[in-house]
Amino acid sequence: MENTARAILRYAHLSPYKARQVINLIRGKDIATALAILSQIPKKSARIVEKVLKSAIANAEFKGMDIDNLYISKIHAEEGPMLKRYTPKAHGRATMIRRRFSHIYVYLAEKQQEDK
Questions:
Q1: Residue 80 half-sphere exposure, CB side, CA atoms within 13 Å?
Q2: Partners of 37 in the beta sheet?
Q3: DSSP string of 35-67?
Q4: Its GO CC terms?
Q5: What CATH number did the domain enclosing 48 receive?
Q6: Which domain range does residue 44 map to?
Q7: Quick check: is 36 in a domain?
Q8: Which site from 70, 99, 107, 110 is most exposed, i.e. has the minimal number of CB atoms within 10 Å?
Q9: pTM, entire model
Q10: What is the pLDDT of residues 40-94, one digit of tens each?
């Protein structure tokens, strides 16, 4: 794990389902391709994931890793806590409003150079 850099965003105001839709598009890609893909997606989740990815890139640069040789080795979104509220409905009923949060994890690694 010495050749990895990570960034974690906790309590993002975003449901994990919506975050995973964007995350699945960039999993395993190199960082230049991933940033290009994220910049073209018109979703709030793309902006949030892009911010976390840029943070991971900055962490990798701080650790002295080669920025041009990085790829997304692992990325996932987990479910955070849920705020539960109730809204009144017809005939005296109430339904629950679930405000979902996410924890987004991004791990970057350097590509291994093959000797020939």
A1: 19
A2: none
A3: HHHHHH--SHHHHHHHHHHHHHHHHHHHTT--G
A4: cytosolic large ribosomal subunit
A5: 3.90.470.10
A6: 4-110
A7: yes
A8: 99
A9: 0.88
A10: 999 999 999 999 999 999 999 999 999 999 999 999 999 999 999 999 999 999 9
Q: What is the H or E stretch that residue 108 is in? A: strand 94-110
At 95, is the secondary structure helix, strand, or coil?
A: strand
Burial label for 2, CB within 10 Å (0-12, 13-18, 19+), is exposed
For 38, counting Cβ atoms within 10 Å of its Cβ (0-12 exposed, 13-18 middle, 19+ buried), the class is buried
Measure the CA–CA gap between 115 and 79, rounded to whole angstroms: 41
Q: Is residue 37 part of a domain?
A: yes
Angle CA(64)–CA(2)–CA(110) in degrees, nearest 5? Answer: 65
Q: 111 and 33 in contact (C-beta within 8 Å)?
A: no
83, amino acid identity: L
The whole-angstrom separation of Cα 46 and Cα 81 is 21
pLDDT at position 116 is 53
> What 8-state DSSP symbol labels residue 14?
S
- Can you read off the two tokens belonging to residue 13? 């105001």
